[in-house]
Amino acid sequence: MAQSKRKIVRIAPKTDGKTTLSAAQKQFNSLTKKIDRQKKLLIEWKETIPLYHQIVEQEYDPAVEILNNQKFEWAKLLDQSYDKPLFKKTDKLKIKHFICEACEQLIPELNNDELKALFNKYSGEDYDTINQETEAAVGELMRSIAEGMFNVDLGDDVDVSSPEKLHAHLQEKLQAQAEAQLKEQLDAPVKQRKKTKKQLEKEARQREEEALASKSVQEVYRKLVATLHPDREPDEQERVRKTELMQRVNTAYGKKDLLQLLELQLEIEQIDPAHLSQMADSRLKHFNKILKEQLSELDQEVHQIAEIFKLQLNLPFYALLTPRQLIASLKHDLKSVKTDIDAIRKELETFQDPAALKAWLKSYKIPKKSDLDDFDDFFFDGMMPFGYR
């Protein structure tokens, strides 16, 4: 059965133009508005994530695979050209540079022995040896940073061959350290300062407010159950309707979703907007406490989802990322990959002619090591070695 049109929970000022909303009423409206906005954003994220993964799996990843294979063909073309008499010493240095750069980038992606052989041939070094030494150096650096940051001794036998293994070992050490500290605190003699009368009164008020806030939600829930419980409903069609509504009530109550419970009260006309405006500020304050907690939980859930994707996209923690921006960024990257594929295909066709390759190499200058980070931006008369990404 189709659900009724959603009711908006708001407290409207009286139409006489003289009575304004109280501070508690204004806060109630502000909180319900923010919760409603965050709920919509959370739904948008949950609908966007499957779409994002679908585009990645069906379009982006296959395109990247094509791009990497085209780059591989470029490296092989350069290898075939290296020993041709047309290419002199300066040309050969540039060819070696491109082959090594291409292989270093592609080996982690393709894990191809032919690529490793090409790298070894033109670099004069063994890729696996270099890779092991680099991983070991990076691992030791990460270990040193982790020990200094968390003030923990990871030991000499820790496996630092990957960030995942180091992280797992660090978590174990921190857990053990926390348990040891807790045991030490429990075993130590308790020397607790006696709380002042003011502190005790404050804690008592907080406990009372929490109890009253929880009771307020229970009261709303009980009223809904009393009206909607389907067991005593003789009409079959109405019993089905009430059963569906009770499922929504139970779900909302299980999540302490006060706003949803109030919306259900409005939907079944158990209360009306006038009822909310007449509610005492003392009760509204209890409602506001629950709504603050609900908003905080929603904010955290949305934040955690966005943070995962910001890490994947190498965005700073303070950057704003919405579901629409995520999809737009993915489609932009997909377009860039397809553009690179078209460019490399044209280059492979053009550079089958050794004279064209030699002319392009002549215009190219090997960048200094400090400039290598900008390698993506090299374009020469519309030609590029390929879009290193």
Overview of the molecule:
This protein is an all-alpha fold. The protein has a domain at 133-185. It is 71% helix and 0% strand. It is elongated.
Describe, in short, the structure shown.
This protein has 389 residues and is mostly helical.
Any descriptors?
389 residues, 71% helix, single chain, mainly alpha, disordered C terminus
Give the SSE layout:
Blueprint: H1 23-82, H2 89-110, H3 113-123, H4 127-150, H5 163-187, H6 197-228, H7 236-254, H8 258-267, H9 273-277, H10 281-312, H11 323-350, H12 354-363
Helix pairs in contact: 1-2, 1-10, 1-11, 2-3, 4-5, 6-7, 6-8, 6-10, 7-8
Percent of residues in β-strands: under 5%
The rounded distance between the terminal residues' Cα atoms is 51 Å
Helical/strand content category: mainly alpha
Q: Oligomeric status of the shown chains?
A: single chain
Give the overall silhouette: elongated
- Average pLDDT value? 82
Number of helices: 12
Proportion in helices: over 70%
> Unreliable segments (pLDDT under 50, ≥5 consecutive)?
371-389
